[in-house]
UniProtKB/TrEMBL annotation, chain A:
Domain ABC transporter: 6-248
Protein name stated in the entry: ABC transporter ATP-binding protein
SMART domains named among the record's database cross-references: AAA
Gene Ontology molecular function: ATP binding
Transmembrane region(s): none
UniProtKB/TrEMBL annotation, chain B:
Record keyword Cell wall biogenesis/degradation present: no
Protein name as annotated: Branched-chain amino acid ABC transporter permease
Main location: membrane
Residue ranges of the TM segments: 12-35, 42-61, 67-89, 101-125, 145-169, 198-221, 227-259, 271-288
Lineage: Bacteria, Pseudomonadati, Pseudomonadota, Alphaproteobacteria, Rhodobacterales
A Pfam family matched in the record: BPD_transp_2
Highest taxon in the source lineage: Bacteria
Membrane topology, as annotated: Multi-pass membrane protein
UniProtKB/TrEMBL annotation, chain C:
Record's subcellular location: Cell membrane
Membrane-spanning segments: 27-46, 58-75, 81-101, 108-125, 158-177, 210-229, 244-269, 281-300
Domain of life: Bacteria
InterPro entries: ABC_transp_permease, LivM-like
Keyword vocabulary terms for this entry: Cell membrane, Membrane, Transmembrane, Transmembrane helix
The protein, known as: Branched-chain amino acid ABC transporter permease
Species the sequence originates in: Sedimentitalea xiamensis
Membrane topology, record value: Multi-pass membrane protein
Amino acid sequence: MTRTVLEVRDVQKSFGAVTAAKDISVAVPEGAVFSLIGSNGAGKTTFVNMVTGYIKPDSGSIRFADRDIAGMAPRQITRMGIHRSFQIAQLCNDLTVEENMLLAGAIHGASGPSFLRRAHDPEARDRAVATLERFNIAEHRDRLVPELSGGVKKLLDIAMAMAGDTQIMLLDEPTSGVASDEKFPIMDLVMEALRSTGVTVIFVEHDMDIVTRYSERVLAFYDGRIIADDAPDEVLLDPEVQRYVTGTPA
Amino acid sequence: MDLVATILVDGLIYAGWLFIVSVGLTLVFGVLNILNIAHGSLYAIGAYASASLVGAYFAAGGQAFPYGSYVALILAAVLVALVLGPLLERGLLRFFYGRDEVLNVLVTYAVFLILEDVMKLIWGVNPYFVYEPYTLLGDVEIGPLFYVGYDFAVIAAAIVVGLAVWLTLNRTRIGKVVLAVIHDSEMSQTMGVNVQRIYLGAFMAGTFLAALGGALTAPMISVTPGLGVNVIIVAFAVVIIGGLGSVPGAAIGALLVGISRAASVHLLPEAELFIIYFVMAIVLLFRPEGLFAKTQVRKI
Amino acid sequence: MRSKLFLGATAAFAVLAAGSVILPDWAMFLCAMALAKGLVCLGIVGMMRGGVVSFGQGLYYCIGAYTATLVANSFGVSDIFLLTLLSALACLLVGMAFGPLLSSYRGIFFAMLSLALSMVLYGSLSKMSVIGGTDGLNIAAPTFLGWAPEGRPLQTALYIYVVAIVVIAGTLMRIYFDSEQGLITLATRDNELRVEYLGASVRNIMTYNYVFGAVLGGIGGTIAALALGHVDPEFAFWTTSGEFVFVAILAGYLSVPAVFVAAIILELVRSFSNLYFPNTWQLALGIFLLVVIVLLPNGLGSLVGRRKGNAA
């Protein structure tokens, strides 16, 4: 039995009349790879947003590292080791790829960001480039963000989130905005980089091929609820999932 | 009891004036998304234009029918709007739509600086007096207190302006289009609204309201250089309190500031200017976007 | 890399200090005032790097000036080092009080709230007749660690003093701009969400920049007060703050020396316009500002900088 790293219990959230999360309970074992599926508005991103602090749940608890993190600020949750990527990659457009990475490194540095130490310190640059290499985007290091392809932006977004001591990584649609022939290579790259660190991964995905190929367990969302929670093959055969999520019998 | 009444009446008079000078500012911000520092200059130009026009009216024998000077006042504001509205909007501001809000404040600050000197070039630096319209309406007696009738005319004008703006926005077709543009100009453009024309119209309306504020004030004061500076400072406070872009907000903001200032003048005269910004700071602490502003949540 | 910076700072000091020999009295006074105001503008530039612009930096310029004047007049302190230190301290405290409050505002709201604070000070000072009301107060000439020069030596000493402060402050700010915190500031301007999700506090960053701006503003105000020998509420008036913003925009946020070059340009333009076109100086300034906004959106600094964020 592996240890449970994240435990979400009875979480509720509604925006006015719209229920975004209803009785959400999940236990995520350490080192697992989970995927979240469901149509738009089913509650996947709300789940990610609640775990990472962008949205405060109305009730329920989210336990991580012996603490209830529900309602904490994103910054605090990030510092504890839960990181995320975004549907639309969140990068600094006026900075180069390397500078974006240096930024992540500066914030995660052991002593905290300094007022004196140069951001472009050679050691820091080496570290930044090493992370970029892990995600195979070091060749773009001197380019500005707006010049990058969708795939490279996604990879940089994830690489920045992995600069610190990451224990749980939530990927919000890692392949959206990526050209279709790049999807598998990018997922291969990301999953390999993530697995090598032993991080627990939770990703939101619409492409069922990616879901079956990369995740060990699937949570299917519908109308703010989890309607199925099992291995990919089982979930995709679930009649409710077929009716509400995948649309066609598998 | 007298003191409360005095504060209320003084506060209402000041609020009326404040509303007239602020509503144009908030309207322009709502539509163009530009916080127009030059609004203060337009106010001052309105004051000069009305001083000149009213002066000319009496010089041309207007004594025979002195009430005609009120027409001259309003005509002055219309003239300012017709000349400067298109000049500034078409000639300058339209190149800055969609740019950074703070940058746009600087653009209008530049316009403010330019207009300050242009006024000196046109009207010189000596004061203008046109007191006739001010004394024309006689005095009003409320209990033991005397007020100049013209002051109440300003309140009436504020109510008329407020109703006119509100009715135009909410009860006419063009007003609904303007509200749509305020809500989402990109969407309106794709729906086939001629946004350019709405922008020009709104800016001219804003210019007219600024100039009208100046024109109505001219008989109450000596019109001198530097008039616009103080106006823009209080108008900003009113508009920020009410929420940028909100017409009802400007009315509430004007009342809040007007009454607080009147109370301060009678109870604690040292705090007159302080109180305006004190009210603004308090409101912003509890409602960071102002009382009536639309709040947006970013989707990630 | 650091050695290049210190070399540049030394060179800048040498060149500016040489001015004390070459410049005539009026020009030395003009430069001293421009450099003092440049310090205030440097503070605005620091905030601009984080994406906000203070339209009320006159607040600290004025607090600095009045602190020095009141301390000098009430306690007979005339030492310029002590006066500068006390003013900087006063501004540090006020900045630390308002900084956290303002740190959650952006754009127009930050600009207008900072403006409001300076106007509150302006309004209060104007009504306080005990400390001179709108007429303001006079402040005696400073002494330098016991030395009390007069005439040209006084002017020279004051000028060298402001040059030294400018070079030290400029160097420190450059180190800060290039530091890890400096990079976080630039990132905040760009994408706050990213910064928060990396685990840094955007509000803290905003507060640091605000407090640094407050201290720089106070030092600038102190020196300006000593150079003029007089302070009045106009120090906090919004048009004063407007000129600071003007210089910051003209300089852009890429280069530190550009801030002081821009400040000197403004003072030169002002004194020549005052001389030749006394009634159209604001007109010239307004047109100048528009031209800068249109033609040099990143300011003078972009003329020498290699690329955004990397300029020397």
